[in-house]
Amino acid sequence: MERCRGNRQNLNNELIKIENFLISKKNISIEGILKLTNLAENYNVSELVDSCLAKNTNKTANILNENNFSIEDGILIIRTLLIKAKRLLKLQKVINNQKNIDQAKSKIQQLKKQFEQRKQLANALEPIKTKIGVYSGKGGVGKTTTTINIAASLAHQGQRVLMLDLDPQANATSGIGIEKREGGSVYESLVGDGLLTDQIICSSYENLWVIPGEVNLCGAEIDLPRMDDCLHRLQRALHSVKMANVYDIILIDCPPSLGSLTLNAFVAADSLLVPIQCEYYALEGISMVQRLIDQVRESGDNSGLNIIGIVMTMYDGRTRLSQQVLDEVRNHFSDVIFETTIPRATRLAEAPSHGQPALIYDPDGLATAAYDVLAAELMQRLNVEEITPDNVVDAAALQNHVPVQNQA
């Protein structure tokens, strides 16, 4: 009996210790301690703790007896709770310290991200690799078809391409499968303060982005001449795109007419790619484009503008006319004409109606292979390291092939 009283006294002393500890550490909850001890699932410990904290020693003994606990077991439980409570407190401090460490790490990551962004911004001060305007001076020669398919082939070869549709007809936009929408073109950036980067749309093809055209661009032909520095509006609009430093090449599909939009493209572009149909008006068209370039250079608006290449389109090897025109152009412009010619092909003409480049609509077609070779040849002139796709064929082999009118 005396031993039992001594044990009860020891239990009471332990109760006082844990009570004082819990009172001094108000953030420690009984529920938290019970979860840590894992006793709540097996024993009715909550009543035991409640009675302990109430210093109800008799009730505590009854609870111990009901759960087949001895007084020694009760003391052991209370001591365990006390130890767990202290461990919980230490763990909470560790957690708080870890939160501070995590916050510090997060802050460091934010600073690193800001540093990388500023580094990218500094790199963006370097100009993008090139801006190429596609212009022919005459409609129906495959200008837009060339723009679409060169853009697709360059993107397929690993170049990041932005195609800017500057033509109010917006055929390049629909030909790549993008819907024409009002207010989605370069118009607001030309005549207002809109950012051109806000108009960029990611196409369904990897590495190819588009700034669509729309009929509102017709109004730019009227609005631009009334504005200050009207010939440099597109050049300034492209500044935000240049600062993004995302694209390797910008292809500008110019209107066929010579107006304010076309002149803006001439001033903004680094060079021009000129598609010419294999007919006798070809030489006149090239001469006109060369005169325009000379005027732009002499005016000082773009002293570095040049023709990066002339591409002969709609070539039909079955006719003497196509070969005669090709030979004539090569004789007069041997330094700029591309070795690759684009054959006339029905499947190539059908592709825009499906909103797809020939690379997707007719991947095995002769015209598709021709545009792939042309893109590779363009990359060689730009001194850009390209990734040659599997379906690119040798240019010389392509030249010797007699194209078929209805390419399957």
Could you characterize the architecture of this molecule?
This protein has 408 residues and is an alpha/beta fold. It contains 18 helices and seven strands. It has a seven-stranded mixed β-sheet with strand order 3-4-2-5-1-6-7, sandwiched between helices. Strand 3 (201-202) and strand 4 (208-211) form a beta hairpin. Helix 2 packs across helix 5. The radius of gyration is 39 Å and the shape is elongated. Residues 25-30, 32-45, 122-128 and 384-408 have low confidence and may be disordered.
What is the molecular shape? elongated
Residue share in β-strands = 5-15%
How many runs of DSSP E, i.e. beta strands?
Answer: 7
Cα end-to-end separation: 108 Å
Structural class based on helices, strands and sheet pairing: alpha/beta
Q: Which range best describes the helical content: under 10%, 10-25%, 25-40%, 40-55%, 55-70% or over 70%? A: 40-55%
Q: N-to-C SSE series?
A: HHHHHEHEHHEEHHHEHEHEHHHHH
Q: Tell me the major beta sheet.
A: 7 strands, mixed
Low-confidence stretches: 25-30, 32-45, 122-128, 384-408
Summed up, the helix count is 18
Lateral arrangement of strands in the main beta sheet: 3-4-2-5-1-6-7
Average pLDDT level? 75
Topology:
Blueprint: H1 2-24, H2 30-37, H3 45-53, H4 57-66, H5 71-124, E1 130-134, H6 143-156, E2 161-165, H7 171-175, H8 187-191, E3 201-202, E4 208-211, H9 217-223, H10 233-237, H11 239-244, E5 249-253, H12 260-268, E6 271-277, H13 282-299, E7 306-313, H14 320-332, H15 346-350, H16 358-361, H17 366-382, H18 395-400
Parallel strand pairs: 1-5, 1-6, 2-4, 2-5, 6-7
Antiparallel strand pairs: 3-4
Helix pairs in contact: 1-5, 2-5, 3-4, 6-17
